[in-house]
Amino acid sequence: MENWFEHNIVATGRLPLFCYFVTLIVAFIATRINVRLIRAKVGWFRNVNVGEMHIHHVVFGVVLMLVGGVSGLIVSSASQVGYAAAACIFGIGSALVLDEFALILHLHDVYWEEEGRTSVDAVFIAIAVTGLLLIGLRPLTWDYGTPVNPGALIVANLALAVVTLLKGKIWTGMAGLFVPPMLVVGALRLARPGSPWARWFFAQRSPRKMARAIHREERWRRPAIRAKIAFQEFLSGRHDLPSTRRGRRHT
Question: Exposed, middle or buried by CB within 10 Å (0-12, 13-18, 19+), for 152?
Answer without folding.
Answer: exposed
